[in-house]
Amino acid sequence: MSHHIVQTNDLHFTYPDGTIGLAGVSFRITHGESVALVGANGAGKSTLLMHLNGCLLTMRGSVQVGDLPVTKKTCAAIRRSIGMVFQDSDDQLFMPTVFEDVAFGPMNLGLSAEEVEPVVIQALERVDATHLKDRPPYKLSAGEKRRVAIAAVLAMSPDILVMDEPSSSLDPRTRRELIELLQTFKHTKIIATHDLDLALELCPRTIVLGRGRVLADGPTADIFADDDLLAQSRLEKPLSMQNCPRCKGKLSQNQR
What we know:
By secondary structure, the protein is α/β, with parallel strands linked by helices. The protein has helices at about 45-50, 75-80, 100-110, 115-125, 140-155, 170-185, 195-200, 220-225, 225-230, and strands at about 5-15, 20-30, 35-40, 60-65, 70, 80-85, 160-165, 190, 205-210, 215-220.
């Protein structure tokens, strides 16, 4: 797909109970960008992500990935280009062992068992999880599950990595390891998150959603410095941009 562009134009979606998920979302993400999607609960972040790989199809407007519009007919091709890591890793891991979970996608693409093995090992190596390959996923910690879920996506060789709340349920050290891992990826990255410090570290650009609409789209540091916008969006400034309660100065790296 040319340039790995992700683009939406006047995207609308309403759930069967009448809840408005998206109300005219438009943006364009180009090759190699790392973009955060932020907003309060119910802002439309997860609904938007599910449109990017065809889990939900637009009611009005359009979604385009590379040269292809996202439709029922193109979903298979789109999902080879976009790797989706869900908020709850248990929604993604369902095979008896980690190896089989990571192998599931490549085998469904038609790779033989001999071809799949090195692909699985390489994906697990990238997330430092080869020691988990024979473990059942349900016995893993939250951080280990997140690593395996990312490996399962990487095994499909996607052009674009899409993540929904990647740091949720992680302890501080595992969260730090995840950030450092994601910093090594050269993929186009789209990350929906409530963790604004993670967004600040990983994503030079941020799109703010509110009630299914784009409230702002621009440089992450500028957006997080806009107190009025954050208040309107029901968001709090990242800890790293807040003043120390004792000295009234910004927190240092060691204080975060």
